[in-house]
Each structure stands twice: as C-alpha cells, then as structure tokens.
Amino acid sequence: xxxxxxxxxxxxxxxxxxxxxxxxxxxxxxxxxxxxxxxxxxxxxxxxxxxxxxxxxxxxxxxxxxxxxxxxxxxxxxxxxxxxxxxxxxxxxxxxxxxxxxxxxxxxxxxxxxxxxxxxxxxxxxxxxxxxxxxxxxxxxxxxxxxxxxxxxxxxxxxxxxxxxxxxxxxxxxxxxxxxxxxxxxxxxxxxxxxxxxxxxxxxxxxxxxxxxxxxxxxxxxxxxxxxxxxxxxxxxxxxxxxxxxxxxxxxxxxxxxxxxxxxxxxxxxxxxxxxxxxxxxxxxxxxxxxxxxxxxxxxxxxxxxxxxxxxxxxxxxxxxxxxxxxxxxxxxxxxxxxxxxxxxxxxxxxxxxxxxxxxxxxxxxxxxxxxxxxxxxxxxxxxxxxxxxxxxxxxxxxxxx
Length: 402
Ligand code: FES
Hints:
Elements: H1 2-27, H2 37-45, E1 49-61, E2 64-71, E3 88-95, E4 98-105, H3 110-115, E5 118-124, H4 130-138, E6 144-148, E7 164-170, H5 175-186, E8 192-199, H6 208-218, E9 222-228, H7 244-249, E10 258-262, H8 265-276, E11 285-287, E12 310-317, E13 320-327, H9 332-338, E14 357-361, E15 364-366, H10 375-379, E16 382-383, E17 388-390, E18 394-398
Parallel strand pairs: 7-8, 7-10, 8-9, 10-11, 12-18
Antiparallel strand pairs: 1-2, 1-6, 2-5, 3-4, 3-6, 12-13, 14-16, 14-18, 15-17
C-alpha cells in the first residue's frame, strides 16, 4: 500500500513539473547545442590520439634509440597532454600494408610535455622485430607519427604506494624510471628511488651521464645499480641476474618499499621465484605490461599438440563479416592485424581492456601471465584478443579501431 502511495506521489510530482518543462522549451535557443566546454577540456587533457612530429633522433647505444616528439598542429595536435610518469603511448603504424600498434613507455617527464612541449620514447631494436625494423628505417626528424593518449597504471601513487620505489628493470625497462626520476626532481617529490637495472653486456649501459646529473640533484634519494649478465674483463659492477641476494645487497632489501618491475617476460618469471622469500604483499608489487608473450608454447598450461595448427575465425567487425585464418601460437589480435582488419588495441598485454571483444563461438587459451579479464567479462564471454589464442575455430565480435 505504501509503495502505491509513493508511486502516485511520484506521478503527481511529475505532473507539477510539466508547466516548467514547457516554459523552458519555449525559452530555449532554436540553434543546435554547442560543444560542452567541459567535454572539450577533457578531450584536450586526455586525447584519444596524439599526432606527433619527430624533432630529434638520438642513438643511446647501437641498439637503443631515443625519439624526441613534438606536437604536429597540422595533423590536429596543438599541445601535448598531461600524463603520469611511468605511463606509455601506443603507437600506430602501417607496416607492409598491415596496421599494428605497439606500446612504448614515455621516457621524458610530465613537465617537459607541458612546459617544454616534447615527449620522448626510448626504443630497443629487436633483431627480428616486425615494427622496430620499420621504425629504424622510417622514423627520422620531420616524420609524422600517431599514438594513443597516455595510458597504463605503472606510476607512483602516493595514496597507494610507499615513498620508496625499488625499481627492477631489464631490457628497455629503464625508460619509465627515467620519467619517474625526472618527475621527482621537477616536483621535488618526497620519493626515494633505488633502481636495479639488468643489462646483458656492458655496452647496454644507457643514460649514464644523465644519471650522474640526477644523482647530484637527488643525493641519497637516488641509487642506480647496473647488473650485467654477460660482463667482460672491464666490468666493475655486480654481475649475473637480479637475484634475491642482489636485491638484498644492492637494493637494500624490500622493507618499506614498493616494487616497480619493468622488463621482458622472462625476467618477470625469474623474479617470481627470487621474490618469493620476501613474502611481499601483492599490493606492493607493480608490474609494467610487457606486450605479447614471445612464445606461448613455453607455458605448461598451453594445450599440447596445437603448435602447428591453424584455425578459422569468423570476425564481425563494424558492419562487416570477415573470415580469417589464425595460427594456434599467435594471438587473435595478431591474426586480425595480419588480415588487415585494424582492430583496436593499446597495451597488447591484456591489461587496458581496449581490445575487449565478444566470443560468440569456439574456445580460446588465455595467457596465464596477462589475463586481465574481469569476472563479469568472463561470465558474459568477453575476452581480450591481445592475450588470447585460438584452440578451435572461432566466431567473434570486435570493435574497429577509431
Ligand atoms: S590491447 Fe589492452 S587489453 Fe588488449
């Protein structure tokens, strides 16, 4: 009875509003509603795309290159957006007629983007890399390139993290830490950074001079140690891998620190064992996404006997339906890119959800290391093509990239 009364009360209230509604409609402008200034501001702070021009290219080592990027107003970007030190940009390139994306950490600081008008990324050339070969050949001063807006969760958040970062980096994983160190200096942050940087050979030491400059500015709040796995006779620092003993001795242990780890997948797997002894709560370990798994068959969980299999995928994309082929050992995302479908992606690691798609039929294997699906997504057959491999023929719905 009470409910009915409330219902009638609501109806009565609605009727009272009708004259006011009519009055407002009569007074409204006959022209179309203009752009909402708040939406406009949000778009400029967090753009979906950034159009860059390459201002400078610097060789850091024979295989590592830094690209200095500025806004390309002719293409539509007049100013660079804000970002958090440690975030990445997903670049979108057409290589041999195939549109691909790759995430690269921003290695410059947020202040440099806002005040000095540039961002930097530092890229390692992968010997058989599909995209890095293209980048080395084509990305020159004056080239125009496009990326997503800044993305990712690999940044220091004082509300969540302790004020001492223990960074463990490998490969080109130094780059987000460069941004964090610069940010700490620019903003005089109450933040200490101890960084263990794993390199293979002594000539992979990068940013050495720069680091000495940062060290002078941060004093005891910054400590960087290079750990070389294949040292020569001239190497004076610690050698081998970043083991628990190196973490204790060179990194000063883990007490009171939040771990930030960025490097190749093999390093993550190695560190899992090394870190076990420290019994660190999961909330104090942050891992940067690392892109796709190099060899999914190396995982024990990957179904046996599929290594050379190929499957058909029926893809509903936009208003089209395409039939494509995919190897069992490649992600559904790579198969779609190879077929020229240009699906959406950013992190390529199952984390951002940007490639979220719907599985209508068939079965997939989801990489155990980068399964970023939510429980509700799993329940309703959503999946991330960047972290999923076909194990039967599939039928899927995906979003076309914007
Ligand atoms: S591209 Fe980020 S989840 Fe697939």
